[in-house]
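User: Before I run my own analysis I want an independent prediction to cross-check against. Here's the chain; please return only the structure tokens and, at the end, one sentence I can use as a sanity check.
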Amino acid sequence: MTRLALLVAAAFFMEFLDATILTTALPKMAESFHARAIDLSVGVSIYALTLAVFILPSGWVVERFGARAVFTGAILLFTLSSVLCGLATAPWFFFAARALQGVGGAFMVPVGRLVVLRTTPKSGLLRAGALLTWPGLTAPLLGPPLGGFLAEEVSWRAIIFVNVPLGIVGALLAWAWTPNVISDERRRFDSLGFLLAGVALGAALLALDAQGVFALALAGLAVACAALYLGHARRESAPLIDFAPFRHKTFRLSLTGGSAARTFVSAVPFVLPLMFQLGFGFDAARAGLTLTPLFVGNIGIKPFTTAILRRFGFRRVLVVNAGLQAATLFACAGLGAQTPWALVAALLCLSGASRSMHFTALGTLPFAEVAAAEMGMANLIYSAAFQAAFAFGVGVAAALMKLGVLVTAPPVGPFRFTFVALGVLMLAVMANHARLARDAGAEVQARSST
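Assistant: Structure tokens:
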């Protein structure tokens, strides 16, 4: 289990490095494409969207073709599409390559994670969760400064090609180490369910980037397709998404609150580099370095997360950290170009530590009450929600910044408006976490400590 978990973590590292290294370079990419940096946010969100949509059939694909072939092929597709991103000469080409990259990502980390979950007893979930997230947290630490340096000194295209050697090595190890989990059962693929769920997700995200009547039409389409899918799932004998895990209160509350938390918090690494460059006038390298303390906090708290969860419990940790996230979002709204670096570093380090603690708890708690037979579907729902939250985080941030342009004075006003709005939304997440049972996750805590 350890070797495979580390390999999945390495794939997680590659995905996160790609996301965080790219955000810092958006202004330079915009210059190359003769576009606005905010318009290139589509390249960030469309990746997360296609990833979220194509996670949905990942369980069926693994049953049909086997975990080894799917995991290895996904790494190769992710690597190839990274090359295409680096060769892009226009925004539309870049967006298309990023969408293809999302398809590869959909069958990479979630499939590997599923194999790890199926081969790990509940007593090892906290340890497995730590192994899966440790390397992934180092990617955001390296990404912003490396992305800023390459964008300033070499080219933004060099940023994309970082994935290539990692992908080649990862594919070789995936083929050698991944057990060939394959099912003898041949379930019919729920194509109508996939279509309805995919359109609902896509329309909802596009609505955030649209305006006026078109935005309302897309939002209506998303709601209609979601409602149609719910009716379809009740009638279908083998639906694409089975909502059985939602009958567990802990799964239901931690997933909904966790998805909202990820949506709002994942906006921070997207908004901050833009504020530093477009609002404060920093160059890409300085913006990337300024962002580094956020991810230092991510990693620094990690050795203590398991002990903290055992000592204080999931509910208390989630409530407190949601409050801390709201406070740091409000504080980010007060930053300025002349704010002392030490103060900025302390704020971002605290934000990163709280974020890491929050997400570690949310990565384990949803599975605390889920039976082994439901683990595959629970993982599918969790993985899709995780990636959709990231996509919506970027989309929500971009929408708030565009709204901020209308109601505040640029260049800094729209960013301040965005952080205040995100802070208010995080307070609602804190209220959701407070609805968890006081002993939520106690079974995982007790078994993990033995």
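Sanity check: The domain at 2-179+240-448 is CATH 1.20.1250.20 (Growth Hormone; Chain: A;).
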